[in-house]
Write a structure and sequence with these properties.
By secondary structure, this protein is an alpha/beta fold. It has helices spanning 9-22, 70-73, 90-108, 111-119, 143-154, 177-186, 207-210, 230-239, 279-294; strands at 2-5, 28-30, 40-45, 61-64, 84-85, 135-139, 158-163, 172-176, 190-193, 217-221, 242-247, 267-269. Strands 8-7-6-9-10-11-12 form a seven-stranded parallel beta sheet. It has a five-stranded parallel beta sheet with strand order 2-1-3-4-5, covered by helices on one side. It binds NADP nicotinamide-adenine-dinucleotide phosphate and glyoxylic acid.
Length: 309
């Protein structure tokens, strides 16, 4: 009943002790030292190498270290009958909400403009807007989007959210589906993307969608780089339709040295760290799920393969 972990040397050094602490009786192996493949019942990783999961004849569940499972699903050979469990864990949720709140507040209170003014030795006061008069929109009202939206609402922002199916969240104006997208975008001054990457959402933030935001709007993308058509964002920033962007995720990671985002004056980047899955609590979550599963209870947070998330 072994568990096979996928990760580079740094990840292995971080995760292995935590997995062993959380599951002291479990045989935990690290790819590619998998031993007898027929003994592997569970896998855990962000983007296992293509074909490996299909080579495990007795695999019972595929655990993702990420909330997003696009890294797992990009392998077309992943067995269709083995459940994929995405990471849902309080630390991951809290980390994301901290990051979103930090960047929404930074744009809302002109932090980057004041930083530039300090660098230029310029003393000047900009107009101040209260959060209650700032309209923030969160695309994706799942585990992470809902928590971020609730926290922004608690800070008195005028918050809306957009999802595939209709929602009711206190303090958040909820829009859904294709018909809800237009009105949602039209009222959004700071757009936060927390969608999963699926066939429907790949490239969703293109010129067409971003142009429907009011002039001077800002984007905070913390979902996946492939949600954004990067050239369209650069063009809209340069044309002045958009005022700025915080980008944590990119089409190519690490962000290539020559990429314009590194030096664009209206772009703030971070290296895909908006919320990092923390090995101690995530290992305990995997142990909890396996214990449930082996006791005959259903796994939680199983990905719907047809939806892609
Ligand atoms: P989730 O719980 O699965 O929520 C996904 C949300 O997106 C749901 O509200 C869903 O609508 C909505 N959605 C999906 N497809 C849609 C569509 N076509 N149109 C409109 N709404 C759609 O996911 P999560 O746990 O919140 O995570 C979201 C994403 O965050 C992950 O997939 C991952 O890519 C990203 N992430 C990034 C980092 C980072 O460090 N940058 C860390 C963690 C996660 P319904 O509610 O109607 O189903
Ligand atoms: C990170 O990007 C995740 O999906 O958890």
């Amino acid at each position: 009943m072994a568990l096979l972990f996928f990760g580079n040397a740094d990840r292995v050094a971080e995760w292995l002790p935590e997995l062993r602490r959380a599951m002291p009786d479990r045989d935990i192996r690290v790819w590619p030292d998998a031993g007898d493949l027929s003994e592997i019942r569970y896998s855990l990783g962000f983007a296992p190498p293509e074909g490996v999961l299909a080579s495990l004849p007795n695999l019972r569940a595929i655990f993702s270290t990420g909330a997003g499972v696009d890294g797992t699903l990009r392998d077309p050979t992943v067995p269709a009958d083995v459940p994929i469990v995405r990471m849902v864990e309080q630390g991951l949720t809290e980390g994301m909400t901290e990051y979103v709140v930090m960047h929404v507040l930074a744009w809302h209170r002109d932090l980057w403009t004041y930083a530039g003014m300090q660098a230029a030795g310029e003393w000047r006061k900009l107009d101040q807007t209260l959060a209650r008069d700032r309209r923030v929109g969160v695309m994706g009202l799942g585990v992470l989007g809902e928590d971020a939206a609730r926290m922004l609402a608690a800070l008195r922002f005028d918050v809306a959210g957009w999802s595939r199916t209709a929602k009711e969240i206190p303090g958040v104006a909820c829009f859904a589906g294709e018909e809800g997208l237009g009105p949602f975008l039209a009222r959004t001054e700071i757009l936060v993307c927390l969608l999963p990457l699926t066939a429907q959402t790949r490239g969703i933030m293109d010129r067409g969608l971003l142009s429907r935001l009011p002039r001077g709007a800002v984007l905070v993308n913390v979902a996946r780089g492939q949600h954004l058509v990067e050239e369209d964002l650069v063009a809209l920033l340069d044309e002045g339709h958009l005022a700025g962007a915080t980008l944590d995720v990119f089409r190519e990671e690490p962000l290539p040295e020559a990429h314009p985002f590194w030096r664009h004056p209206k772009v703030r980047t971070t290296p895909h760290i908006a919320s990092i899955t923390l090995a101690p609590s995530a290992s305990r979550e995997v142990a909890r799920q396996i214990a449930r599963f082996e006791a005959g209870e259903p796994l939680e947070n199983v990905v719907d393969r047809a939806r892609g998330y």
